[in-house]
Amino acid sequence: MSRRSLRTFLALVGSAAAAAAVASPASATGSTTASTLDATAEPAVLAAAQESLSQRLGESYASSWLDGDGKFVVGTTDASRTRDIRAAGAVPKVVEHSAAELAGVQSTLDGRAGSVPDSVTGWYVDVTTNDVVVSVLHNDPAGVAWANSAGSAAVRVEPTTQANHPKWNLIGGQAIYFGGGRCSIGFNARNSAGTRYVITAGHCTELGGSVTGTGGAIGSVSGSSFPGNDYGVIRVTSSSAVSTPLVDRWSSGSDVTVAGSTVSPVGSRICRSGSTTGWRCGTVGAFNQTVNYGGGDIVYGLTRTSACAEPGDSGGSVVSDPGSGTRVQAQGMTSGGSGNCSTGGTTFFQPVREALNAYGLTLYTG
């Protein structure tokens, strides 16, 4: 049996071992008889029936599936084999193309993927309609021609209006790019209407314009406060960018998950994540510090820490130290400081709760 036909039953098969242990559909359970193979049967029973029939029908086998009524249907290109299918408790369907033929057509298309137009959004074997479906955006002539060049009557072109896009995660600490520089994601949040935002540093969002990330476009700056404060938000408009409660620990371990925003007290351990220096930890030294960055840029209400940071880390997540766990409390977004991660120094962060309150947002948590 081809791998393609097996995929039809992926959601049904408990395990290959369980399937192999079933001798026949009728004997596997007392409640399943030769005339009642349907969606109510045990998954292993259906898998065993499918395996048995695919072997018995050989080249005439044309895949198996559950129809809209939940009946177990087995296709064949040889009408004389319908009795065998019924005897096994399945519903026979005589079709034109075998499973092996359809798999071969798909393999041919796979081999020509290097020349596929962007208007072709994908192709697959539809066992229920006994053909290979090629989805073509807006029925584009170039896409249709590519599909038909496979030279098989088994190909069916299916127009679609939706293009496919890869999904990528917005994760705290990872890089974001503005027209004039690079900063880091702080946290993902949303408002009561479900509109999504990335929270980062205000001295980053004051650059304005469109913002991109590691996977492509994110959206545009929709709010910024600097100096005085140091927070800003980017409205996420890309359908490909997935908002998450995660913060990157880089080489220090797997991502941690934001569980809330409980403030860590003075003297406690915190860690920060940024796209320049990764995951760095230290202790909280003081709350509500006023910081003068020079040139009239004075920021109030920052938290002082001993965690190091460097340019590009700005806006990145500051969270409670997870210790040996993976859940953290959001503290704030890296603002600035002195020193670096070679000689050490002091880093300040903008408390996240102030930004959440200012824009009426709620963190993504997990």
UniProtKB/TrEMBL annotation:
> Where is coiled-coil annotated?
none
**Gene3D superfamilies per the record?**
3.30.300.50, Trypsin-like serine proteases (2.40.10.10)
Q: What are the cysteine partners in each disulfide bond?
A: C183-C204, C271-C281, C308-C341
The record's active-site residues are H203 (charge relay system), D230 (charge relay system), S314 (charge relay system)
Keyword annotations from UniProtKB, A to Z:
Disulfide bond, Hydrolase, Protease, Serine protease, Signal, Zymogen
Q: What protein name applies here?
A: Peptidase alpha-lytic pro domain-containing protein
Pfam families xrefs: Pro_Al_protease (PF02983)
Return the annotated region ranges for Disordered: 312-339
Q: Where is the composition biased (Low complexity)?
A: 316-325
Record-annotated Peptidase S1A alpha-lytic prodomain domain positions: 97-152
What does the record list as GO biological process? proteolysis
Task: Give the signal sequence positions.
Answer: 1-28
Matches recorded under CDD domains: alphaLP-like
A GO cellular component annotated for this chain's UniProt record is: extracellular region
What does the record give under GO molecular function? serine-type endopeptidase activity
Question: Which protein family is named in the record?
Answer: Belongs to the peptidase S1 family.
